[in-house]
C-alpha cells in the first residue's frame, strides 16, 4: 500500500514546505556548511521564506555559523518550534545534543533523528528548506532522498582533484537515489590578496568547471577563499549578510536558484 511499483516507499512532502534542497559534498571540510548557511541567508534577503536544517549528524556546525546554541522550545513535548536567526528558520541536531558529545549512531537511529527533524519541527510555510547533509554518502542521504520528496541537490567541491573524485561519489549516489543534481559549487577557488589584488589558485584552477562541463551540469558559483568568510562563520554572522564581493556572489547564486 502506498508504494511505487518499484517497491520504493512513496516519498513524502512536508506540509507547507514547497521545496527541499539538499547540499552535499564528497568529503568534509570543503565548506558545505558555510555554503548552506550563506545561501540560506542570501535567499532570505531576497524575500524567500527559508528554513535551514543541519543534518550533519557527525559534526553539526550550523549552530555556531548561524550564531545560535540554545535549545529549541517544545511547548507540547511533541512538536519542536524551530529557532530563527538572520531571517532563517533553523534547526540542527547540534542543539538537541549535549555539547562535545561524539555521536556514534547506527543507521536506524540516524533515520529516526532525521525523520524527527523533518516531521516534528513546526517548519510552517517555507519556499525552501535547505538541508546541510553530512559529507559522503550514507544513511542520512539514503533516508532523505528515499523517504522525502527532495526537489534537487547541490554538490560542493574544492578544486583539488581528490576532492572532486570524492564529489563524484556524492553525485552518483544522488542520481542512484533519483534526486536531480541542480549543479556544482566550487568553494575555496582562488585566493585574492587583499593587499595587491593578485589571485592565487592555491588548490589548482578550473577542476570543478571542467568536471561540471564533462557531466553536462551547471557550475553554479565559484567562491574564493577569504579570511572574512571564515571569521564571519565563526562569529555566527554569515558573510552573505553583508555587501562585499563574496556576498554579491551569494546574492547572484540565490537569485539564480529562486528564478
Ligand atoms: P564542511 O561543512 O564541508 O565540513 P565547513 O563549512 O565547516 O565545511 O568549512 C570548513 C572550514 O573552512 C570552516 O572553518 C569555514 O569557515 C572555512 N571555509 C569554508 N569556506 C571558506 C572560504 N570560501 N574561505 C575561507 N574559509 C572557508
TrEMBL record:
Residue ranges with Basic and acidic residues bias: 1-11
UniProt key word Transcription: no
The keyword Nucleotide-binding is annotated on this UniProt entry: yes
Keywords from the UniProt entry: ATP-binding, Hydrolase, Iron, Iron-sulfur, Metal-binding, Nucleotide-binding
GO terms, molecular function: 4 iron, 4 sulfur cluster binding; ATP binding; ATP hydrolysis activity; ATP-dependent FeS chaperone activity; metal ion binding
Gene Ontology terms describing biological process: iron-sulfur cluster assembly
Residue numbers binding ATP: 26-33
Family, as annotated: In the N-terminal section; belongs to the MIP18 family. Belongs to the Mrp/NBP35 ATP-binding proteins family.
Function: Binds and transfers iron-sulfur (Fe-S) clusters to target apoproteins. Can hydrolyze ATP.
Assembly and interaction partners: Homodimer.
UniProt protein name: Iron-sulfur cluster carrier protein
Amino acid at each position: 500500500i502506498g508504494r511505487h511499483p518499484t517497491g520504493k516507499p512513496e516519498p513524502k512532502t512536508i506540509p507547507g514546505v514547497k521545496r527541499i534542497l539538499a547540499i552535499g559534498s564528497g568529503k568534509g571540510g570543503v565548506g558545505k556548511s558555510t555554503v548552506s548557511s550563506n545561501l540560506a541567508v542570501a535567499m532570505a534577503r531576497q524575500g524567500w521564506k527559508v528554513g535551514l536544517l543541519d543534518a550533519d549528524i557527525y559534526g553539526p556546525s550550523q549552530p555556531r555559523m548561524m550564531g545560535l546554541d540554545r535549545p529549541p522550545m517544545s511547548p507540547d513535548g511533541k512538536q519542536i518550534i524551530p529557532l530563527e536567526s538572520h531571517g532563517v528558520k533553523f534547526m540542527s541536531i547540534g542543539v538537541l545534543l549535549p555539547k562535545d558529545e561524539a555521536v556514534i549512531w547506527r543507521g536506524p537511529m540516524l533515520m529516526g533523528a532525521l525523520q524527527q527533524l523533518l516531521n516534528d519541527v513546526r517548519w510552517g510555510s517555507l519556499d525552501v528548506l535547505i538541508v546541510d547533509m553530512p559529507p559522503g554518502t550514507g544513511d542520512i542521504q539514503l533516508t532523505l532522498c528515499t523517504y522525502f520528496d527532495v526537489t534537487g541537490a547541490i554538490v560542493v567541491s574544492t578544486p583539488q582533484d581528490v576532492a572532486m573524485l570524492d564529489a563524484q561519489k556524492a553525485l552518483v549516489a544522488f542520481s542512484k537515489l533519483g534526486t536531480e543534481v541542480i549543479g556544482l559549487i566550487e568553494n575555496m577557488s582562488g585566493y585574492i590578496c587583499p593587499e595587491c589584488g593578485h589571485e592565487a589558485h592555491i588548490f589548482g584552477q578550473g577542476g570543478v568547471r571542467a568536471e561540471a562541463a564533462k557531466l553536462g551540469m551547471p557550475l553554479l558559483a565559484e567562491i574564493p577563499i577569504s579570511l572574512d568568510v571564515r571569521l564571519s562563520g565563526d562569529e555566527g554572522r554569515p558573510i552573505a549578510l553583508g555587501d562585499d564581493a563574496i556576498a554579491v556572489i551569494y546574492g547572484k547564486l540565490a537569485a539564480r536558484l529562486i528564478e
